[in-house]
Amino acid sequence: MEEDHLEHHIPDHKPKTYTETVRELDSRMRTLLNQSPASVNQEEKQQLEEIIDWIPELAADSELKHKDWNEVQQISTEIKSVFQQTDFSQVDATLVGRYFLLVDKLKQYTGRSETKKIQS
Question: In sequence order, which residues have a C-beta less than 8 Å from that of residue 84 and are 6 or more positions away?
Answer without folding.
Answer: 49
